[in-house]
Structure formats: C-alpha cells, structure tokens
Amino acid sequence: MHASRSILWLALAVATPALAQQSLSKISDDIQTQAGQQYGSLASVSGDVHVASNVQAKGVHTVSGDISIDSGATVGDVANTSGNIKAADNIKAADLKTVSGNIKLGRNAQIGGGLTSVSGDIFTDRGSHVTGDITAVSGSIGLVQTEVDGGITFATSDVTVGVDSHVKGRIYLKKPTFSHLDHPPRIVIGPNAVVDGPLDFELPVQLYVHSSAKTGKITGATPIAFSSATPPK
Asked: Rounded to the nearest 5°, which phi and psi values hold at 12?
C-alpha cells in the first residue's frame, strides 16, 4: 500500500517551490483552477483540489483532501490517500489511485492507466474506457457499459460487470492475508457483459451470470444463471 511513503512524498512535494510554470502547491489550503487553463502539477497535503472544466494538468495529488475533476478536463496521474476522487463526464486521465477513498467516473471517461482503491468503492459510468487494470481490496467495484483492456483484481470486494461492459483480462479474487469474511463476495456478470479472460476465485463467492453474458473459464465458483435485469438478492 505504501501509504506512509506516499504521504511523505506528497509533503515534500508541496513544501518545495513548484518548478513547472503554472504549477500550484499548498499545504492546508484548497486548490482551485480556472476553466480552460493549462497547469503543471496540482498538489496539496490536507486541502481539496478542484480541476475545472477543460483544464489541462500534468498531475493531481493530495493526502487527505478530495479531488474533483470537471467535464472535459485532461490530467495526468491522480492520487490521494484518504479523500475521494470524483470525475464528471468526458474527462481524460492517466492512473487514478486512492487508499481509503472512493473513485467515481462519469460518462465517457478515458483512462490511460488503471484504477486502484484499497478500501473505497470504484464506479465507472457508460462509455468509459480503462486501458489498465482495476484493483481493489475491500471496496465494491461497479462497471456500466465500460470497456476495460486489463483485468479486475480484488480480495473481499463485491464486483458488478454491468450491462454491456467488456473486460478483456481476467477477474481474479486473490486470497487476502486475513481469513475472516462477513459474507462471500458477490460477483455479477450482467446483461450482454463480456469477460474474455478467466474468472479465478481463491475464496468462495456468490457468482451470478446473466444468460446473455459471456465469460472465460470459471475456477473456484459455480455460476448461478439469471435472466432478469438484476440478479436475485
């Protein structure tokens, strides 16, 4: 997880004068940007970072603040430790990473890397495209009409590959170092969803596969078929 290392790196980054023109670095204050402008890096320790519509920025980082990205913005790597990352429609970004926050993408998001959250939820809306992998430990993962070039790796999360979504890699439940789970993870492969790779589970799960969905080889679970819009509770 390297959370402490990330905090130290961010603290040093904002304590040093920004080298790139139009970079913004603060310790405890929020960072606000102007719509349509170009920036270098945007970094804060305990403040929120707001990326306005159609802004271009090389990177967005904070430790304990939230990050919001408005429609049409283009950014590099986005990372925080304990805050949420929320993006509006039609954004472009590289990797999005958080430790204990949620990641929520609007429609038609174009992600050049992956999505990673340890204990927060990950959600992608219609028309989104993720080039890399989606990784979580205990937060839920939900995709709606989303294309993922990589795979999905998780430990205790509930995962929904929703309607018309396409995951080209594998779906992999990696057994966590702790063994106690309140309930088996709930995995749903929804209507017209496609998973090209295998579904490999190292712990018991509840796996629901829609009659119109297609998947690779399933190991470690017996799929429960359903044909309604949503699976049984």
From this structure: -65, -35
